[in-house]
Amino acid sequence: MATTTYVNKRTAHRWRLLALMLAAVFFAFGSFWLVQVMRGDAGGPNVNVGNDPDYIIDNFSFVRMSETGQPRYVISGERLTHRPADNTSVIEKPVVQNMSTEHPNMTMTADTAHVNQDQNQIDLAGNVDISRPGSKTTQPLRIRTEALTVLPDEEIAKTDKPIEMKVGASVVTGVGMVANNATMQLQVGGRGRITLPPRTAR
Q: Are residues 116 and 89 in the same domain?
């Protein structure tokens, strides 16, 4: 009887060990697949052949690193919905911040954003607000428009919609704009109008 009890205990121990090993294998495989999905790779189990969302993330934050290992820009938002067919994502209440150490950081917000990961392009839409703090050589900058295309790697933002821009106390309005944060250059298209603050009495 004692021998039988010992064998049963040893068999039960083996079954528990086998179950733990299988669970570890499935967990590792599932983690690997999730990483591939986040990177936009086509492989993985149960590939979504349509354009239905394959994952949704609430209150997320994504950091893009530079070649030197420094943060290049940060994208965050209330919800990210990824569609695998065209490798694009839709973000609700997006916030885009560049993390350049050479130029003042620029922050962009909007109602929604459409991210094309293959082209590294972000299209902001609805109540687009761009702000950049002042520095020793530049004045504070704020731009408002309804649509904006951002190329984060090039630090370029552009639109063909009407814009209102405040540079310090001056106001500039126009239709269309190209802003290059890397070169600190900004072009306003259309028949732009500049409103300067009144001169202070000496």
A: yes
User: What domain range includes position 40?
Assistant: 1-47
5 part of a folded domain: yes
Average pLDDT in the 180-195 region?
75
**Is the sign of the CA dihedral 27, 28, 33, 37 positive or negative?**
positive
Reported residue count of the chain is 202
Decide: residue 33, CB within 10 A, 0-12 exposed, 13-18 middle, 19+ buried. Answer: middle
- Indicate whether 34 belongs to any domain: yes
Which residue is listed with tokens 């052949």?
Answer: 49
The helix (H) or strand (E) run that includes residue 155 is none
pLDDT tens-digit series, residues 115-167: 887 778 899 999 999 998 887 777 888 999 999 998 877 888 899 999 998 98
Tell me the C-alpha distance between 101 and 103, whole Å: 6
Domain-embedded: residue 202? no
How confident is the model over 12-30, as a mean pLDDT? 45
Of 74, 129, 120, 79, nearest in space to 97 by CA: 74
Domain match, 134 and 43 both: no
Q: Which of 44, 48, 45 is nearest to 56 (CA)?
A: 48
Say if residue 169's pLDDT is above 80.
yes
